[in-house]
Amino acid sequence: MAPANKSDTKAAKDAAAWMFNVLTSVGIIMVNKALMSSHSFSFATTLTGLHFATTTFMTLVFKWLGYIQASHLPLSELIKFVLFANLSIVGMNVSLMWNSVGFYQIAKLCMIPVSCLLEVVFDKIRYSRATKLSIVVVLIGVAICTVTDVSVNTKGLIAATIAVWSTSLQQYYVHFLQKKYSLGSFNLLGHTAPTQAASLLILGPFMDYWLTNKRVDTYDYNVTAVFLIILSCTIAVGTNLSQFICIGRFTAVSFQVLGHMKTILVLILGFFFFGKEGLNLHVVFGMILAVLGMIWYGRASSKPGGKERSYSLPIDKSQKHGLLSKSGEHNNKV
């Protein structure tokens, strides 16, 4: 009975971590949509810097309370991670500005095959045919739901390429660093959030001015807008933490595949709250196809040979003071 109980406990924790990520991610999208659409706060990069500043404050509080133990992350690894993460944020914003919505969605879908490639090359992971086909089904379903007009230009293609690769590398690196240096999600956030906050708060106002031709310091900070900014930053703490937890428990590919469930939920909530103009038969079909693909992926990747690593990532034995992530005790199957 013990193995079964252990398996049930892991499944329950995985489901809880995933639901935490879904709720916070969908919540922050809705808050940001209200902030940017209804109150014209178009400073996305600066807002992300505020998100990481709030997350940094949270990690300092938890460290003071003793919930985060001392740990070590080499400076070279920290610099690489922050570089990938910041390129991802800036790349996504620029890609959305320079590309049509349709091509922007296609670029986001490309993150799954890129993440698969990174796992195959660096982790020697092998996927079964069923797992590969399930990923294709998910991609087709989400594409049917979200991709409309598609127009491509040279600078937009460059921005999308940078955004896709940097985002995939950043998500792969979350899992890699947690495994290699035995870092828990709080520990990794404690190392990365301050650097990201500082760099984005310095870079953000200039990037936002370039993208929108508006200055963040001249914005009309009324009571409602300030409340939404604070709410967005508060939810972002959970979003950042849940992302690290999920990638630590799963992998970047699983996180991307299951992440499209958030896309489906956002579409459904959008239709529910903002009208049903875009809801038609092919969108509903795409949603159903995507959900079935996600279920198939979960079943296929959990079977023997569905998704296997030929060797384990090395553990840095010098990290004696690191907080051992519970995710390190499990394999990376869904």
TrEMBL record:
Membrane topology summary: Multi-pass membrane protein
GO cellular component: membrane
Entry-linked PANTHER family: SOLUTE CARRIER FAMILY 35
Protein name per UniProt: UDP-galactose transporter 2-like
Record field: transmembrane: 15-35, 41-66, 78-96, 133-150, 156-174, 186-207, 219-238, 250-273, 279-297
Pfam families: TPT (PF03151)
Domain Sugar phosphate transporter: from-to ranges: 24-297
Protein species of origin: Canna indica
Compartment list: Membrane
Main location: membrane
KW Transmembrane helix (keyword) present: yes
Keywords of this entry: Membrane, Transmembrane, Transmembrane helix
Annotated region described as Disordered, given as residue ranges: 306-334
